[in-house]
UniProtKB/TrEMBL annotation:
<dbReference type="InterPro" id="IPR029016">
    <property type="entry name" value="GAF-like_dom_sf"/>
</dbReference>
<dbReference type="Pfam" id="PF01614">
    <property type="entry name" value="IclR_C"/>
</dbReference>
<dbReference type="Pfam" id="PF09339">
    <property type="entry name" value="HTH_IclR"/>
</dbReference>
<dbReference type="InterPro" id="IPR014757">
    <property type="entry name" value="Tscrpt_reg_IclR_C"/>
</dbReference>
<dbReference type="GO" id="GO:0045892">
    <property type="term" value="P:negative regulation of DNA-templated transcription"/>
</dbReference>
<dbReference type="InterPro" id="IPR054844">
    <property type="entry name" value="TransRegBhcR"/>
</dbReference>
<protein>
    <submittedName>
        <fullName>Transcriptional repressor IclR</fullName>
    </submittedName>
</protein>
<dbReference type="GO" id="GO:0003677">
    <property type="term" value="F:DNA binding"/>
</dbReference>
<feature type="region of interest" description="Disordered">
    <location>
        <begin position="1"/>
        <end position="20"/>
    </location>
</feature>
<feature type="domain" description="HTH iclR-type">
    <location>
        <begin position="23"/>
        <end position="84"/>
    </location>
</feature>
<feature type="domain" description="IclR-ED">
    <location>
        <begin position="85"/>
        <end position="268"/>
    </location>
</feature>
<keyword id="KW-0238">DNA-binding</keyword>
<dbReference type="GO" id="GO:0003700">
    <property type="term" value="F:DNA-binding transcription factor activity"/>
</dbReference>
<dbReference type="InterPro" id="IPR036388">
    <property type="entry name" value="WH-like_DNA-bd_sf"/>
</dbReference>
<keyword id="KW-0805">Transcription regulation</keyword>
<keyword id="KW-0804">Transcription</keyword>
<dbReference type="InterPro" id="IPR005471">
    <property type="entry name" value="Tscrpt_reg_IclR_N"/>
</dbReference>
Amino acid sequence: MARDTPRKGRPRNFSGDASQSTIQSLDRAFDVLETLAAAKGMTLSEIARALDQSPATVYRVLSTLEARGVVEAEAETQAWHVGATAFRLGSAFLRRSSVLERSQPAMRGLMETTGETSNLGIERNGDVLFVAQVETQESIRAFFPPGTISPMHASGIGKALLSRYDADQITAFLKRRALERFTDNTIVNSDALIEEMRRTRDRGYAFDDEEKATGMRCVAAPIINAWGTAIAGISVSGPTHRMSSDQIERIGHLVRDAAASVSQSIGAAAPA
């Protein structure tokens, strides 16, 4: 006889609902931890007031978490903070949450929604390195196999990543790299590129309008990690006769939303 397989790590023959299976004290501990994580340090009375709990109850939770290094108290100010163990536990999630793994569903969704090839790229030594692709089945399509290198100033993903640079980073980039021309549309003027970065930030997506290859367009948006750093870009690329000018804004919003979804899945804050 086949044995029942426990689902989602539950005990065999478990049939209780979620409200009956939670541990109240553990739930309260997470309330305390989430409250501390949103602040820059809080006293016992501040935490108790924020959670509408008695100081004695909150102190027992804090003492338990402190013993495991999940929170720590600052002796001078008596303020409580998230501790090193919480960071270590969170890092286990970050190790698991590979941007490549997390981007695959979004890339497939973009390809299916737009009918065009979706790509994932990262910055390497001032260029874009393409690391993954979900291809359309159309006979004429963009093709950037993993390992392909492209200059940042003439790439949708590259411009999406550049748009997150601050003024000093942009200045350093422009000093290091010549803006090579590939087509009549390639941006080769520093001031023009800086202005393009401003427009990209404002709309939330970058647009490569036949700037690397005549007849091909690309729309891209940056993927942001938990520290607000752009670590990759996701894009949709295709020929101009299918990615016409009146399609760009719609595709841009789809790509921007896909990038935001991946960003949140690896720990970034939700867009304001």
